[in-house]
């Protein structure tokens, strides 16, 4: 007898939710399949119908959070002051904040930040290549720098309960990218 797709999807989601609640409390190497299945209300066999191990659960969560090139909005570099589209990253971060704040936090997955940055680099490269003649090696370093800063500052913002408005944070980031830290501090 075949299982109903909606029941199968709900079972998988229940296991993911149980894993996630444990992952929010402790590091992945401290989580067991037994804990997950006990929390979700299933047996070990059910777990293994959907996942190969605990790391597979995390991998599937992360894969669902990494935007594909099709999901990212097109970027156009219209004016000379336009830099990296910070608001695009802010919307993406806020949409997935439940997960991003943990995955990019102190106890999260160190590889997730790289996956996130690498997913957005191609669209940024394309947008800037259409407007500017850039040295690709240098541009790779620039993108890594900017994306690392953006991921870091948004993680910090979430960890500190959004101590400033999203609009103020975007304005601060744009000011820092366009004018630099020293210029901003001397205002």
Structure notes:
With 187 residues, the chain is mainly α. The chain has two domains: 60 residues, Tetracycline Repressor, domain 2 (Orthogonal Bundle), CATH 1.10.357; 119 residues. α1 crosses α2 and α7 crosses α8. About 3% of the residues have low confidence. Keywords: DNA-binding, Membrane, Repressor, Transmembrane, Transmembrane helix. This is TetR/AcrR family transcriptional regulator.
Helices and strands, with pairings:
Blueprint: H1 5-23, H2 33-40, H3 44-50, H4 54-65, H5 86-95, H6 97-103, H7 110-131, H8 136-159, H9 166-179, H10 181-185
Helix pairs in contact: 1-2, 7-8
InterPro entries: Homeodomain-like_sf, HTH-type_Tx_Regulator, HTH_TetR, TetR_C_Firmicutes
Keywords: DNA-binding, Membrane, Repressor, Transmembrane, Transmembrane helix
Protein name: TetR/AcrR family transcriptional regulator
What count of helical segments does DSSP give? Answer: 10
- What is the 3D shape? elongated
Q: Helicity level, as a percent range?
A: 55-70%
Helical/strand content category:
mainly alpha
Major beta sheet summary: none
| Spans of at least 5 consecutive residues with low confidence | 78-83
Question: Total domains, how many?
Answer: 2
Q: Mean pLDDT, as a whole number?
A: 83
Distance between the termini: 70 Å
Order of helices and strands: HHHHHHHHHH
What percentage of amino acids are in beta strands? under 5%
Radius of gyration: 20 Å
Number of strands: 0
């Amino acid at each position: 007898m075949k299982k109903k797709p909606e029941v199968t999807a709900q079972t998988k989601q229940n296991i993911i939710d149980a894993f996630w609640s444990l992952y929010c409390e402790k590091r992945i190497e401290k989580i067991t399949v037994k804990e997950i299945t006990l929390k979700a209300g299933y047996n070990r066999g059910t777990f293994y119908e959907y996942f190969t191990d605990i790391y597979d659960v995390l991998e599937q969560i992360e894969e669902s959070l990494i935007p594909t090139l099709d999901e990212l909005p097109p970027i156009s570099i219209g004016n000379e002051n336009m830099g990296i589209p910070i608001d695009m990253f802010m919307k993406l971060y806020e949409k997935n904040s439940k997960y991003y704040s943990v995955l990019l936090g102190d106890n999260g997955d160190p590889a997730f930040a790289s996956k996130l940055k690498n997913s957005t680099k191609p669209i940024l490269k394309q947008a800037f290549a259409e407007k500017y003649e850039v040295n690709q090696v240098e541009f790779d370093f620039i993108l890594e720098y900017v994306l690392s800063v953006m991921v870091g500052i948004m993680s910090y913002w979430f960890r500190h309960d959004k101590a400033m408005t999203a609009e103020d944070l975007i304005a601060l980031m744009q000011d820092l990218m366009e004018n630099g830290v020293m210029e901003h501090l001397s205002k």
